[in-house]
């Protein structure tokens, strides 16, 4: 084995054992970081997670069942063909049903590691299918967002997904089905401007960047320097743009409590409606 190959092998081995925190730069043992749910024990930075990695601890064991599909993005503008990229990349959304502390919900989880979590035609369709699943089963919808915005490779087709997903959100609101959003780093562009902020309860992870345009774009447009906390979850909480900033270790409990509260509210509404029906029937008979 050549010296260069040996160096690369050792680097790969080291990267599997140690992870460098992007928040403080400290190297953390990979197993310890995974056991801590991807939260740096040194500075508390919340590392970005893939959907199935998050689902493994957010949902009750064995309850989250992703729905299968065969949808793949097309390349309407020929953008990927010209650039030599995969014309049908993996989609940045998985959806299904599961239970969190015993409360059932439909869920759509976005994956920033797949095409930057961009909102394209298929991603928008999968978000809508999650909403339709919530409607058909009469259970709350949980949205876990992490996105760089609309997929420019699809042009106007991607932009239309903002309107498409909002139609589904409106149907949920009209049906009285609650929606919970957990905004993760980053949630930006068309996702932040549509279904992510259409939820009834808006939670965010600590330090998550949540904005329409990122700090660099905003600084270039405005010609001024923004503070470090610009568009971060804690700043948005101060401005009333999110309801809670929830650390990762508390998310299962907080979302479970919300689902339990909503289930109780739904039962109270059902009992109230049954009582009205009975009173109406008694009035008619009397």
Task: Describe the structure using short key phrases.
single chain; 286 residues; alpha/beta; eight-stranded mixed beta sheet; two-stranded antiparallel sheet; globular
Question: Globular, elongated, flat, extended or rod-shaped: what is the shape?
Answer: globular
- Quickly give the structural class: alpha/beta
Distance between the termini: 95 Å
Helix content: 40-55%
Order of helices and strands: HEEHHEHEEHEHEHEEHHEH
Please report the number of helical segments: 10
Low-confidence sequence ranges: none
Strand content: 15-25%
Number of strands: 10
The profile of the biggest β sheet is:
8 strands, mixed
Description of the structure:
This protein has helices at residues 3-17, 30-35, 51-58, 79-83, 121-137, 156-175, 189-192, 215-222, 233-238, 248-285, and strands at 18-20, 27-29, 65-66, 93-100, 103-110, 141-147, 179-188, 201-204, 210-211, 244-245. The protein has 286 residues and is an alpha/beta fold. The chain is 44% helix and 17% strand.
Topology record:
Elements lengths: L2 H15 E3 L6 E3 H6 L15 H8 L6 E2 L12 H5 L9 E8 L2 E8 L10 H17 L3 E7 L8 H20 L3 E10 H4 L8 E4 L5 E2 L3 H8 L10 H6 L5 E2 L2 H38 L1
Parallel strand pairs: 5-6, 6-7, 7-8, 7-9, 8-10
Antiparallel strand pairs: 1-2, 3-4, 4-5
Helix pairs in contact: 5-6
Task: Kindly summarize this structure in a few lines.
With 286 residues, the protein is α/β, with parallel strands linked by helices. 44% of the residues lie in helices and 17% in strands.
